[in-house]
UniProtKB/TrEMBL annotation:
Protein name listed in UniProt: Glycerol-3-phosphate dehydrogenase
Binding site for substrate: 119, 268-269
Residue ranges of every copy of the Glycerol-3-phosphate dehydrogenase NAD-dependent N-terminal domain listed in the record: 15-173
GO BP terms, alphabetized: carbohydrate metabolic process; glycerol-3-phosphate catabolic process; phospholipid biosynthetic process
């Protein structure tokens, strides 16, 4: 864990955004609404960078979002992108974060604050993205924040009213970041439950896969309501053992994020699960989707973590069995439905 640093500049003035997907694009739009922040935007694809410079839009995702050149500077070199930034925002799938950061060192991150917007875990290592940044790059714990809450990138693009929560152990940093995000269609709140918000964001993707499987198997709304209500208890049980602090799971950063991911048409994890329930193999479903379903990786990570914690987690177990042990969704859900209340 990075050392605690009680004295650092909590202001957010220039952010280096790492990632070129739909959520990264939505975040670019959010932070561009005000005049407080300038953005360095690193994308892997050079053609995308050239397109953004010429046409001021992302050619792959959320093409209707206007990229303002006076506020956003695209970069091909990640080290250059973060050099003059005070804050680095991570917005790539968790499975690719190690590859994305490449040969960067702790020296590159010296004096930088970190924002994770990633709702997934580092596969195989089974650790949160924030823990990875602390362990590998020595980022001080209070210089890290997580952005969570019920907010689909597609609705941000349409400027539909959305709510986001900033979690950090440093209240001043959280407030500074939350203030930079506020705009006519984004409201913000802050909490100090960094790991709790992050774990919940990971686990809700597993539940969304389960809801998708249920829909694919032709279970109805009645069953899904029971599934989601049981899921909240499952999350509560896990968090009590993994990171037990006082928190209100009924707030939007927890329950809100769970609901939007399990019910929304925009949920890629629900879509992935629906395909599995309809008979797609895991590989076929992944190939057909153009975006990563974090629940695929998360189900294995949380399942393996829980071997030591021993929390009662029938939904996570069912998803793990279906995805990784290739048990029939029909068979697994016949077992699962008898464990729900």
């Amino acid at each position: 864990m990075g050392t605690l640093n009680t004295e650092f500049d909590t202001s957010v003035k220039r952010i280096a955004v790492v990632g070129g997907g739909s959520w990264a694009t939505a975040l670019i739009k959010i932070f561009s609404e005000g005049d407080q922040v300038k953005l360095n935007w690193w994308l892997r694809n050079k053609k995308d960078i050239n397109h953004i410079r010429r046409y001021h839009s992302n050619p792959r995702y959320l093409g209707a979002v206007k990229i303002e050149p006076e506020k956003v500077t695209p970069y091909e070199d990640l080290r250059e992108a973060i050099k003059n930034a005070d804050t680095v925002m991570l917005a790539v799938p968790a499975a690719f974060i190690i590859e994305a950061l490449g040969d960067l060192t702790a020296e590159d991150f010296k004096g930088k604050k970190i924002i994770s917007t990633i709702k997934g875990m580092i596969p195989k290592q089974n650790i949160l993205v924030t823990q990875y940044m602390e362990d590998v790059f020595g980022i001080p714990h209070d210089a890290i924040a997580v952005i969570g809450g019920p907010c689909h990138a597609e609705e941000v693009a349409m400027e539909k009213q959305s709510y986001l929560t900033v979690a950090s152990s440093c209240n001043e940093y959280a407030e500074s970041l939350a203030d930079a995000m506020k705009c006519r269609f984004i409201k913000t709140a802050t909490v100090d439950d960094l790991y709790g918000v992050e774990y919940c964001a990971v686990m809700k993707n597993i539940i969304a896969v389960a809801c998708g499987v249920a829909h694919g198997l032709n279970y109805g709304d009645n069953f899904q309501a029971v599934l989601v209500s049981n899921a909240l208890q499952e999350i509560k049980c896990f968090l009590k053992r993994a990171y037990n602090i006082e928190r209100d799971l009924a707030s939007s950063a927890y329950l809100g994020d769970l609901l939007v991911t399990t019910y929304s048409q925009f949920s890629r994890n629900r879509t992935f699960g629906n395909m599995i329930g309809r008979g797609y193999s895991v590989k076929a479903a992944q190939l057909e989707m153009e975006m990563i379903a974090e629940g695929y990786y998360a189900s294995k990570s949380i399942y393996e973590i829980n071997k030591d914690l021993g929390a009662e987690m029938p939904i996570t177990t069912a998803v793990f069995h279906i995805i990784y042990e290739r048990i029939s969704p029909y068979v697994e859900f016949n077992i699962l439905k008898n464990k729900l209340t």
